[in-house]
Every structure is written in structure tokens, then in C-alpha cells.
Amino acid sequence: MNIQQYQYCFFGVVKREFLRFLQQRTRLLSALIRPLLWLVVFAAGFRAALGVSIMEPYGTYITYQQYITPGLCCMIVLFNGMQSSLSMVYDREMGSMKLLLMSPFPRPFLLMCKLIATAILSLIQVYIFLIIAQFVDVETPLLGYITAVPAIFLIAFFLGALGLLLSNLIKQLENFAGVMNFVIFPMFFLSSALYPLWKMKEASLWLYWLCDYNPFSYCVELLRFALYQQLNLEAFMVVFISTIFVSILAMFSFAPKRENRR
Amino acid sequence: MSILVENLSYSYGRKQVLKELNFSLTAGFNVLLGPNGAGKSTLFSLLTGLFETGYGEIKICNVDLIEQKRSALRLMGVVFQQSTLDLDLSVKQNLLYHASLHGISPVSALKNIEPILEQLQLSERLNDRVRQLSGGHRRRLEIARALIHQPKVILLDEPTVGLDTDSRGLIIEHVRGLAHELGICILWATHLMDEVSGDDELILLDKGQVRAQGRCDRLCDDNDTKNVFELYHKLTSSVELM
């Protein structure tokens, strides 16, 4: 196989993911409605109750809407990653996964193509959300939109790989509801998406530790800083290492069913 | 030799489903006949590299499937028992997606497949969504798709399941034609004895073992049976009595 053939394969897999995304118009709608409800309804209600003092990377006092925006962006990426996991389970049940696994290209490359396609879709959805968020008084520095691209891409890659891994653990489509309860909600709520961790520490130390060990918290912080043209090195390292670790596990989980040795 | 299987065994846990299979196939129309649960689908999963076993050897056109899996996969086209089409995409989109998985450009893919689509009467339906196609047309599309990368071997796992008699007849006729025209090896797995013709190369699989292999009419003569129905019952029941 030469580089051009790898290109055809890459664009073929990405195009299919896009076509499928376009077929599911409600997917885009629900991907945007969910965080917008949090931003417009939840954040407005809690604005008065939850004051956020000056903290990095913000140079001054910020509104609660401003604070939760990076968390909501990560929520979009998280849901998209899980949606792609759902579509993998669906593909497996419908049989079309066999086509992908029977391709003569290396399996890690094929899975990588899928992850990149998922990441691009996440990126598009996050930017649509960020544009709409401007109308709800969420101000992001103009350059922040550019510096956030690699951060969103890395986060999307991590969460997509996690979805890929989960898709191999979920044996039936019906079990997907469990992912909502045991993965999405704990990951989101036990993070710095909705409240700063120091506030959590004041409320409960063990909850703080749970949030602190949750890699999703680092996704949120990585994006929060990236939107202000800063690099949170600790967050970057945690997300980067988690991405590599989860990607390797996901690749291994797609190895053919092996019975015994020769 | 298009397909060579030597001492192939496979177990699900403690249950052995394939026992020391040995057979070889050349270009032409070959039938793998066996009842449900005979091990046909497991054998297909092994032949397509979806399962791997440590016992035995599989070679596709002299390429070792375990040692040189990617090269072997390039030589194969497969139609699975369960449809693997994306129902919400068009015929063309499904074909191009498959072509991309084999590193073929959209232009070359459409050029390769044009005569086959014509022959399978699908040319007019390129832009239709797969969901709009009948069961027979979907199967034809899967056959066309399996041919898009110009393989040397085509594996079809019970491709007529769920189709009416006319569609079944048409599909089997098309595939026999393709085997003859393209000079490729076709392995057609089925449990339907009326899909076997006298001049087909037959492998009779039962309870994970090959009971017989050879030209169907010769096997019937050798076993003093009039047709494949009798042959099947004689060979499978004789083993059961042992």
C-alpha cells in the first residue's frame, strides 16, 4: 500500500462519518441544545448563587456563564465521543464493522481514521456552540478561538478513543443507557466543568479527590486555558498521556478473536 | 491453489466447532454445504481473518493468512450472511466507501465496477439509498461491492438467506456467471441443497468436519446416490451412526 492509497482510505472513512452525521440531523441539534440549556437556563439560575472569584486564566471576575463554557464545550465532545461509540456498537450489530476490520490496511490506522473523523465532527459542533454562546454574553478572546483548536482536537481524540474502548465492552445496543449513568454523568459532574475544584474541596474532601483524579477535569482546564491563549502544562500532560493510554487499549480491544497458539 | 486449508481447528471455550479441516479449492464455483451449526460461519470468520486460530493453516492464492494477513485480505472479497450495507447511504456511497477501505480512488472504483453493475442491473440505481432497494437488489449490491477491488477469491456466506425463490435463482445464476467470466474462485456457503448443481465442486461440512469433497456428480456416483439430497443424508447420517 502506498501513501496515496492510505489517503483514499483516510478520506473514505472520514467522508462516511460525515455523511452519517448529516443523515442524523437531530444529532447536531441535540448536541447543541443540551449545552445551550445548561448555559442559558442553568447558568442563569446559578449565576446569583455561585460567584466565581478571580482565578487563572481569567484576569478579572467572570460570570458563571463564562466559567462553565469550557466545561460545556467538553460536554459536547464527550457526548460526540460516546455517540461515535454508540455508532460502533450499531455497526457491529448491523455487521458493517466487519467491512472495516477486513480492510487490508493496518487496524490501528483504520481506527485512527475513525478517531480523527470523530474529532473533526466534535470540533465543528464546539465552534457552532461557541458562536451561539457569544449571544449569551460569553466573551472569548478572538485569538482564543485559534489556540483552542489543538486543545479541542486532543480532547476529542481522547474521548473518542474512550468511546472506542467502551464500544468493545458494550455487547448490545440496549446496554448503551448504562454508559450514560456510569460514564458520561460521573465524568461530567465529578469534574471542574460546573464548579472550580477549590469550591468542591470546601464542600467535601473525598469528592474533591475524585474530581482531581478525573481526567475530564484536565480536559476542561486544558480548554479553559487554551481559550485564553495559555497552556496549562499539567492538564496537557494528563490529557496527552491518557489519550495514548486509552488509544492503545482501544486498539488492542479490536484485535481479532484469537483462540490458541500455533 | 486459490484456497488451501490444512489441519484447521477452532473452539469456543471447550466446545470444538471445527475439527482438523483439510481442503483445497481452485478457480470456479465451489459450494460449502452444511446444516445450520455445521461451522460454516466460523470457518468464514477464520477465512476472513476476523478470528484467528493457532491450529492449522490457511492460504489464499499461496499467501499465508496468518503470517501475511493484509496481503491475503487484498485478494479476497466477502459477502457475509448478515447484510453489511449502510442503509442510509446511497448505492454509490456504499461502493465508494468499500473501495476506499481497499485504497482505491473513487474514479478507479467506478470504472472497475461499471460492467459488474451493468450485469447485476444496478447501474440505474447508483444514487438510490440502499434502504429503498429490495432484498435481492441489496444482495446484488453486496456482490458487486465484493468485486470492486478485483479479488481473486470471493466468499459468500449464505447469501440467499431471506430471499424469495426467483431472487435466489437469479443471484446464484449471476454468481456462477461471474466465476466463469472472471476466472476467480468462489466459495458459496449454503445449507440449501437445491443451490448445488452437479458440476459444482462440493465440500460437505457437518459437525465441524469435512465429510466429503469433490465434484458433486462424482461424489454422488462414488457413494451410490442419485442426487445431492441423498448424498447429504447418506454421509451425514452414516457418520452419526458411527
From TrEMBL, chain A:
Topology term for the membrane: Multi-pass membrane protein
Database matches in InterPro entries: ABC2_TM (IPR013525), ABC2_TM_bact-type (IPR047817), ABC_2_transport (IPR000412), Alc_ABC_transptr_permease (IPR022403), T7SS_ABC-Transporter (IPR051328)
Keyword Membrane: yes
Location of the ABC transmembrane type-2 domain: 26-257
GO molecular function: ABC-type transporter activity
Principal subcellular localization: membrane
Localisation: Cell inner membrane; Membrane
Assigned keywords, A-Z: Cell membrane, Membrane, Transmembrane, Transmembrane helix, Transport
Recorded GO CC terms: ATP-binding cassette (ABC) transporter complex
TM spans (from-to): 36-55, 67-90, 111-136, 142-166, 178-198, 235-255
Family: Belongs to the ABC-2 integral membrane protein family.
Name the record gives this protein: Transport permease protein
UniProtKB/TrEMBL annotation, chain B:
Residue ranges of domain ABC transporter in the record: 3-232
Entry keyword Glycosyltransferase: no
UniProt keywords, alphabetically: ATP-binding, Nodulation, Nucleotide-binding, Transport
N-terminal signal peptide: none
Family annotation (Pfam families): ABC_tran (PF00005)
InterPro entries: AAA+_ATPase, ABC_transporter-like_ATP-bd, ABC_transporter_ATP-binding, ABC_transprt_ATP-bd_su_PQQ, P-loop_NTPase
SUPFAM superfamilies: P-loop containing nucleoside triphosphate hydrolases (SSF52540)
Gene Ontology molecular functions: ATP binding; ATP hydrolysis activity
KW Transferase (keyword) present: no
Family listed: Belongs to the ABC transporter superfamily.
NCBIfam families xrefs: PQQ_ABC_ATP
Annotated protein name in UniProt: ATP-binding cassette domain-containing protein
Organism: Shewanella hanedai
